[in-house]
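yo

u said u wanted the structure for the complex thing, so here. seqs first:
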Amino acid sequence: MNLNYEHLPVIIVALLLLAAFLEPIVYRHKKSWAAPLVIASMAFFALSSLYLMAAVNYHGPFNYYLGGWAPPFGIELEIDYLAVFLLLTFSVIGLIAIVYGLQDLKHGLKDEVLGWYFTLYLLLMASMAGISVTNDLFNMYVFVEISAISACAIISIKESRECIEASLKYLILSTLGSGCILLATAMLYMITGHLNIGYLNDVLPRVMSHYPNNILISLGFFVVGYGVKAALFPLHVWLPDAHTAAPSPSSAVLSGLVIKVYAAAFLKVFLKAYPREIFLEIPVMEIVLFLSVLAILYGSIVAMVQEDIKKMLAYSSIAQIGYVFLGFSLMGQRAVAGGLLHIFNHAMMKSMLFLAAGIIIYSTGIRRIRDMKGLGVKLPLTMGAFTIGALSMVGIPGTNGFISKWQLALGALDLGRPIIVVVILLSSLLNCLYYMPIVINAFFGVKGEPELEIGKVPGVMLYSILFLGFGIIFFGIYPAPLLAFLQKTVTAIL
Amino acid sequence: MEDLLVRIICRLVVPFVQLYGLYVITHGHLSPGGGFAGGAIVGASMILFALAFNLEAGSRKLSHDISLLMESGGAIGFILAGFVAMLLGQNFLTNKAAGFPLGVPGNLFSSGAIFFFSVAIGFKVGSTMCTLFYNLIEGSDRHRSSE
Amino acid sequence: MIDIEVLSKLFNNYYYFAAIILFIIGFHTMLTHANLIKKIIGMNIMETAAFLIFVSIGYIEGGRAPILDEGFDQIYMNPLPQALILTGIVVAVSVTAYALSLIIKLYQHYGTVDADEIARIRSYKP
Amino acid sequence: MTTGIEIFLLTFLIVCAVAVAYLKDLLSAVIVFGAYSLIMAINWQMLGAPDIAITEAALGAGVTTFLFIATISKTRRSE
Amino acid sequence: MWEGDELLGMYWQAIIPLWVVLFPIFMTPAIFILSKRSEKLRDGLSVLTAVITFFSVASLYPFVMEGKTIEYTLFQILPELGVTVRIDILSFCLAILSSFVWMMATIYSLDYMKPEHGKNRYYPVLIFTLGATLGIFFAGDFFTLYVFFELMSLVSYVLVIHEETPTALKAGYKYLIMTIIGGLALFFAIIATFELAGSVSLSKGVLVSKPSTLAFFAFVCYLIGFGMKAGMFPLHVWLPEAHPVAPSPASALLSGIMLKTGAYGMLRVLFYVFNIEVVQSARWDLLVAVLAVITILLGSAVALTQFDLKRRLAYSSIGQMGYVLLGMILFTEQGLVGDIFHIFSHAFMKSTLFLAAGAIIWKTGLRNINDLAGIGRKMPFTMGAFTIAALAMIGIPPLNGFLSKWTLSLGALEAGLPIYVVILLISSLLNGLYYLPIIIAAFFGGEEQEHAHGEAQHVEAGINLRGEATAKMVIPMVILGLGCFFLGLFPSNIAYELSLKAAVFLFRGGM
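structre next:
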């Protein structure tokens, strides 16, 4: 028996799936074990990701052939820097969200569906881990589908009519996106005979001049497909409803992680599978850049007029995913690193904000921003964490949002595009315009005790957002190792 | 559809359909078909049964608990079978290199782990089909979603 | 003449051609029809079209189904796309089933399966 | 000649797809979609993919149609 | 032995800037926690922190007078960008000034804030802002400077809106938005500098030595960012709203010290990022000059039309900051001396004025200038300090305002720009027009009506019009007022020496 670390990625995915399928049985027969099982599997996920990160950092990236079949026929997993980075992000944020969720969900969900929620959550995590590590386009498609279904399901699990409608809208559009991804994959397979990203990168430069139409179609469909799933600007229509209607931990995971995983998949396909020369001939990245700029401005502007706090956060997500795509589509060393960094940073900020909003809704039932006056007096820690998140969104130095903005802006200047920096700054200002009034209203301008009914906030919920808030500050002050790691990642990709 | 003729024919047909489904499942590596297709056939037979008689009769044959167990059990079995190769020092889901034979045409038990994989998938797909159908018909009194 | 060239190209690749047409029909049905059930059917058509492209890539004129038999010297179809599409079909069916269950729930809430009508009801009663 | 049959089948597929889009009666649309799936299954067989043919027949034509009909019986029949 | 002592001394001096920045910041949570226990402890600790900080800064004096510079990087936040600490004479000037005024304002706060709410919030924020402000001055590169600049700006928001009235909240919101805009402009400027030069350190000499489009935009953004804080003309809109609504000690700090951070930043930009040749050859100085002149005239002119005491003071601040901005683009040594000395003078004058105004408001509740007739007889010390500072503002010799204006004029003449002298004179005249009536009315006017019914009203309202405010309020005010006097008496006082050295230092290339 030699179980070395190279098996870990597949063990992660398999164990998460195993736990997911065990969960309904456990929940039916031994209810008290269900929650520990979820926590244990997520903790295992987080720990092994950490270990994997250390191993890859030390030994270098490695490949894993599923079933012992070498590519081009077998499915290959490639565990490179990017993959471990994504794994770590997903696992840690996922763990925190579900730890928080245990309390919140008991409050918000019907008892009998809780077990199913855990199943779906683990399935979602497994599929995201799968997308991160796989190096095979079709396998990626399958994981994308699984994640789409489970993501829809954790929205619809509340069974209110808003949830179901949002979930159905999401499902339909998401399937549309999957169809596009599948067709694009087929197009690539048609001209190269490969589905493996590495092989595609080898073969595509040789065949691209023979089949320009196929390349064009595949690029277009990939952009549409991943764009729909990651809510890139004109294809974002499903996001606000879906992220608003879902239970708070779901919103945190959906906004913080799920849309990011598609952005990462986009990065994998576009920068790892396609040769760089294609983008010189076909300006698809310019289009994505343009869309992401629009996304940043649109998301920020629309967020300003929202009344529901979760809806506001959802629109803000549209703007933030714009940053990620902005970094990727610039295709410079610093810019891509900035985009990746923003995946991590925004995952922390946005899940924290959603979880804080969840606490507010949990303990007071308030959803409208207008009604949140004086909340800072009643829920000082929650609103304090919210403030940190808001400051980070605006990009105040000392928070991690500043670091990613800095990196992105520097990346844009590297490529001689100061106008992008102006867009980033403009959006920071807009962020300020819609986050700051909440903070100000919560803390200031209230004389005496506000008349609010406050339920008791469970400690676990509070600790999880405080932990995330601490992370925001920590990575705002000491991002150096993370950035060094990302530099390595980007060097490997480009 | 509470018709005598339909019921009798159903009684007659369903065992054969199920047998065929099992055949498809178990001979997945030898002939067209496999876990997915066979499981779907078995599941479809159960649905047919439930349609011809009524839902109570159908769920008596395959109760929700059993269905749940089969559904999860199939998936778990598949993953566990995949782990076997790993315990033998090979990659996940490895068949040939882990010492299992690759299969001789025409021989049912000649292909090692693939047989187990097929059976596990068959269970899973078949029971999932039934669950889905019941859920759709029964409506929202029980919540369930697909995998 | 270019037209004839294009036509003959299309004729020679009739599977791709048909698949693209089906894809567009499915896409169109999915996007433009307000009826949710129709949308789901469109979704299925779209996905089968994509599968059709995939499988026809592996198609070889005069080849046999990829089943190992006594004669080893025969030409086989490429088995890889077929194996993949099997997975794809199962995924498609699960998505369909899930979507349909959502539609039923939506019907119980709104009394209609028409997306436009649902939007109207929602905007009517905020 | 095989090409003739293939082209006939593909044309039939397209016709079915268009018909599905235009039929006002949802039940008829679903039935036509069932036919579409069956033709698709035959198509798979023609393409040398019996595995998919069987699966498509069972899942696409069988189960999916069942599910659609079940849904329509729960909701409303006309568009 | 002797060498060891020397080395130890070096280490100690190297640590002081860090200590000075971190000590108040770390005391903040302590004060916050203790404030729940006892108010006395909280007040005492706040004052103690301010005092210790001041003396720590002061202990650097011999070191700095030797003309030494220390710079080291604490740790890296981003590749090539870290938290860098640096002491030189310019930073020492600003640091000693701000810690001194801060100490005074903190002592003043003790009694002033007694009737106010939210004191548990006020003191920690006050002390934290001290740390952040000193962080700006001891920053070794623009990145660190930016970080502390943003921290200070954001945290001082809490000071601005302390009273939490709708007016205060509105003004505070304006302040916040403008601060963020300024911060973002700075962000752009610094990032562009980093892109152009590969570094934003203060010790690399001139960073950008060739004018280019990007460099120009960077310059403009620096101007927006720092000019925003300094209340430069088109960006001054937040200032007259925010300064009056803050509690008076906070106003004194906002006007006296925090405005200076903008001027300090501009000085650093002009001498470290670009240099004289770049700015002059590209004629960028013209932009600053025009804006500075408009700022001077506008600030002084609008102050005339204001009848709220603190608002008038706030507009006066805008005008005075115009002098500072003007002084730095004269690019003569004399002008620079005047410039830096004016930073000193204005800090003393304006904080005295605001503290005095605060004492009047605290004691009588009167904010309108027309109601202040005869107040000088009731509060002689307060109005005495007010008078000295106001006269200094106008530029009456031998007060410090005169000295700085004199030096500035000399600098302008040296630069061959006598027009600036005319502007200074006009502005002084305007200053006289809006300060003198207050003083005259306070000491000589309005006896009858005040006695007739004004006092009766106030007695009804339960306010005692007689007598001074408490000693804790009067003493800091008087000390600052006397400072105005002594710093102007001889042109060889400590502040002037420091300014002289700093100006020479900057002209030598700032190494």
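Chains E and B do not touch (no CB pair under 8 Å). Strands of chain E lie at 70-78, 81-87.
cya
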